[in-house]
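Dear support,

I submitted the protein below through the web form. The confirmation email said the job was done, but the results page showed an empty box. After a refresh the structure appeared. I'm attaching both so you can tell me whether what I see now is the final result or a partial one.
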Amino acid sequence: MADTGVELDRLVAAVPQNPDEQQKDDKLAQTLLFVLLTVVLCGIAAEAFFINLLYHRELAVSRLKNRSEQDGPIRGFAHLTGGSVQENEVMLWHINNVTVLSGMAYKDGRLEVQKEGFYYVYSKVCFSDIGLWNQSPVFFNHFVMKSAHLRENYYTLMQSQKELRVNTNDLNNSFLGGLFHLHKGEGIFVRIRTNLNILQYNVSEHFFGAFMM
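What the results page shows now:
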């Protein structure tokens, strides 16, 4: 009786499966394999994309760094305010929260050029003739100078001159501005020549600067 049961199990196992069910199983396996393969390929593509993006970003940063090291600052500009005249007639400027310095250095009243190019240079000073009573007319001279690499050599870039007369109590302004070709290492500064202390000490009344075109 036991042999008969075993034999029946063998016969059932030997009976071929339903073709429709076999086809469904094959399609399911193919679908799962396709989904798995798609996920793997998408992962590889995403990884390749981010690697390529990172490579080009590092390359751009490296090129920009090399350019900065070779060429120096791309644009130089500066704006200084609140000057006072020293014994050597050079105006010193206050370094404060309104000072602008980018691509230019400042020392002892001079702006030093860091990159060769064309710069628009400007300067304004304010003065009055109050206190000139019973004195002969005097001249107020306003210069913007350029110094070479050796500071002993300097040249006048711009100049204005005004004759001051007694008993007028006028408030005067002198503005100079122009475009100049400056070389790396050269300095520009403001020089005031007068025998009277007549500058107005209002920070907003005096300024000096330059910017690269």
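Response: this is the final, complete result; the empty box was a page-load delay. Residues 63 and 95 are 34 Å apart (CA to CA).
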